[in-house]
Amino acid sequence: MNNLIKNLTFLIFFTILFMIMNKFNLLYCFETSLMRIALPEQNRLGINIIDSTFKNHYYDKQDYHNSITDISIERFIQLVEDNELRLARNARLHNINDCNNFKYLSKDGRFEYIVKIEKDVNGNIIFKEIVTDSINRGTYNFFNQSGNFWQRSFHHFDVIFWLLYGTSNQDASTICWRLNVYFKSESKCGGLIVNES
Fold it and tell me: pTM, whole model, 2 decimals?
């Protein structure tokens, strides 16, 4: 019963947080203006230092991630055949201005491999290339995407990091743009449909 209450509290908290973010979709876009009004220049310095510390740590992890996941398509196929990678449930945020990208995760769930696929005339999936563009590439997961509900719930923090900082310091998208993609995406993409039977 205690775990149920904790899980529900956690879920309610994130639901309210995302409802607020959705209601004020471009809220973060106005952050600089709001801080200028609310805080004098000397008080903003502390917030900027904290933000840049988190951002630098996040970008360091993304650079490490990229050094691991920038592999040849042949090596990727070998990892899939050796069951070192597993297909992730959702690749919607890795199909921006693109389609047919699938997300695979390492066994520990930390590393994301995004791969562009096609289907041949018989409907078989063909792996074409590892996606390395700065908008759709995979990101390092600080929180594992497997385990029980409570453990998986922390993965939402990884999405928040992506919303704030993108996929790397080379990501050309803005926070406002990522928020819009996250909440207002009209795309029918998300990868080809795979039977998980």
Answer: 0.70
